[in-house]
Amino acid sequence: MKVKAWLITLVIISSVLFGLYIYKYDTIYPSAQAASTVFEPAATVESIETRFSSFQKTAKVPGSVKAPQQLMLKNELSGVITELLFSSGEIVDKGQVLLRLDVSNEEAALEAEKARLVLSEQTLKRYKKLLAKSEISADLVDQAAANLSIAQSNVKQLITTINKKTIKAPFKAVVGLHNLTIGQYLEGNSTISQLVGTSSMLWVEFSLPQSIPELAIGEQVVIKTVGGQSTYANVIALNPVLTDLSRHLKYRAQFESSKSAIKPNALVNVTAPVGKSTNRIIVPDLSLTHDQFGDYVFVLTPENNEEGSYRAKRKQVTLALKNEQQVVIESGLEAGQLVATTGAFKLRDGMKVFIAQTQQNN
After folding, report:
1. What is the Cα–Cα distance from 237 to 242, expressed in whole angstroms?
2. CB atoms within 10 A of CB 284
3. How far apart are CA 283 and CA 344, in angstroms?
4. Which of 21, 27, 185, 255 has its CA 20 to 30 A from that of 159?
């Protein structure tokens, strides 16, 4: 009986050990069928089909907008304002009288000088008749002629002074703000107001370093305001020499003011072309990955054994330009390739990929 009990116990222990061995073997060395059903991680991304696009390098520099006709109107002579004939923000015509200063003293002096002029003319005429009869000396005639010239000069000087105290618009313009009133005393060289011409064109002036190829007359640049408004301008002039300190070349470009709300004296960014246009592949910035060895994108190639699935291949590229939205590829890609865009950050080399959407490269 004891022998039989031991045999039964031995059989049970052997069965348990054998079962444990089979379980462990299957766990470490799964069958071929089980191996074929092991889950393979995959990712879904968006892609873009590459193609060549026209590309030109640019340089972005600050610029300042100016009106072709713009000045601070000032008076040359001092005086009290007797007439104020314009309002702030008004459009005035060329030659229109804007204000007059008190000229009562000058007008009184002019009347006196005119009377002296008439007397000088009569005296010279009478002396010439007496000289013809040899009744006076030639010196008296010369003196009378000099007095006539002085009187004529005094009259002209007073008329000029009166005219200078009448301030006129030098060109058709919009008048700026002012705080003048009738009866106010103006010192000489006081600011009356700012005048900005009503021309349909505005200028933008900017400078480029000497390392950048010189822009040609008529070449187009892009100007953009701080608020994001942009327009095109054409180069119309450039300085013949570089600046002394920065060695930059100054340009002036012209654009239509009616096509934008840009005001004179506005600060803008000017984007100017650099060199000739070339063909390059351009991909979204989301396609680019980077490590200590360089820049990479993931090229997607279709799998033969499963329709709709792709494999990601990490491809090193050289960049010509990179901004917040696009990457211009100098080398490393060819036209007609599929490149991962949105979701590229989660890929690794050789990973299985499904494409959610494919776009054409512009």
Report:
1. 14
2. 18
3. 12
4. 185
The rounded distance, in Å, linking the Cα atoms of 187 and 338 is 75
pLDDT in tens, 132-141: 888 888 888 8
Superfamily of domain 59-69+197-276: Efflux pump adaptor protein, beta barrel domain (2.40.30.170)
Per-residue DSSP letters for 232-248?
EEEEEEE-SS--TTT-E
Half-sphere exposure of 56 (CA within 13 A, CB side): 12
- Within 8 A by CB and 6+ apart from 325, the residues are 284, 285
The CATH code belonging to domain 72-195 is 2.40.50.100
Distance CA 334, CA 50 (A): 7
Instruction: Give residue 254's pLDDT.
Output: 95
CATH class of 42-55+279-360: mainly beta
User: How far is the C-alpha of 129 from the C-alpha of 289, rounded, in Å?
Assistant: 106
Tokens 């009478």 belong to: 126
Residue 37 has pLDDT above 70, yes or no: no
For residue 20, the surrounding DSSP H or E stretch is: helix 2-28
Residues 6+ apart with CB under 8 A from 247: 209, 210
What does the radius of gyration of the chain's CA atoms come to, in whole angstroms? 45
- Domain locations along the chain: 2-34, 42-55+279-360, 59-69+197-276, 72-195
pTM above 0.70, yes or no: no
More confident residue, 35 or 208: 208
pLDDT at 8 over 60: yes
Residue 65's pLDDT is: 94
Rounded Cα distance between 272 and 275, Å, is: 10
String of DSSP letters for 293-338: TEEEEEEEEE-SSSTTEEEEEEEEEEEEEE-SSEEEEEES--TT-E
Contact 72, 178 (CB under 8 A): no
Mean pLDDT on 307-316: 89
